Every structure is written in C-alpha cells, then in structure tokens.
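From the shared-data thread, chain only:
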Amino acid sequence: MASHNRITLIGHLGRDPEVRYTAGGEAVAVFSIATTDTWRDKEGNKQERTDWHRIEFFGRQAEVCGQYLKKGSLIYVEGRMQYDKWTDKQGVERTLAKVRGESMQMLGTNGQRSAGEPADSRRPAGAAAQAAGTPPAADGSSTAPVGKPRRMDDFDDDIPF
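Structure, as tokens:
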C-alpha cells in the first residue's frame, strides 16, 4: 500500500523568520506559525486552542521567506511532516516535530499587515491591482478602481463545482 506525508497549514507567524546558511551555502529559513481552533463547548461557551508549528524552508524559498515574511504575516504552507530524534547531554531521548516546507503562499491584504510595516512591503507595485483583476499601469502604479471591493459571486467562470 502506498503512503502519503502531506500537511497543509494556514496561520500567522509568531516572529520574523530566522535565515541561516549551511556550510554549502544553502539558505535555511526557520519560523513558527500559529493555527487556532475555536468551538463551543456543551454549555455554549466559546473555547479556543492555538497550536504552534515549526516550519523550515530551504534554498531560494528560504531567502524569499526571510525577505518578505514578518511577524504576524498570514501564510499558506504545504509540506511534509518530519521528526528529528536525538539524545541530549543528560541521556534523554528528544523528538522535534517540524514541517519541511515545499511551497508557501503569502496571504492577506495590505490592510492585514503587521503594525509599523510599510504598505508596499509585501507586494511589488501593481500586485494588489493584479489580485483584484486590474492590470498595473506601465509605470508600476495601481489602476485599481477605488470603491467597494468585488464579491466572489461577481466573477463569471467556467469552473464546474
């Protein structure tokens, strides 16, 4: 029987990524993201649990993480679970669970950026307009119309589901 090791997470960074380089010169970015579950208990009280996930990216993706991600950034991560086991100095066996990132997507809008972060720090010029379906102007400035945002049901598409 075949096996499958795939994890998908959407969460907020708990701190800025730490980027280091291996002896061979390959970049390694390490950071943690928080995912939060909320539910109502039997008495109707709102309950919440936050889990922290250690993420590692290598190579060019690690450099991108270090350059563009900041504490509080909302990201989508795909990867695989990996467990590192070792024995510490006191002879106790330790295990570290982490996600070996294979792809990531920065989510959110400029309105969801961290406090003190410049408005244009996450996207290149015109990226917000492209996300809204409007091409950027030749000089890189946005030509997105000002007004209420478009709703998802305003789009016409041929997706069968």
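The chain has a mean pLDDT of 78.
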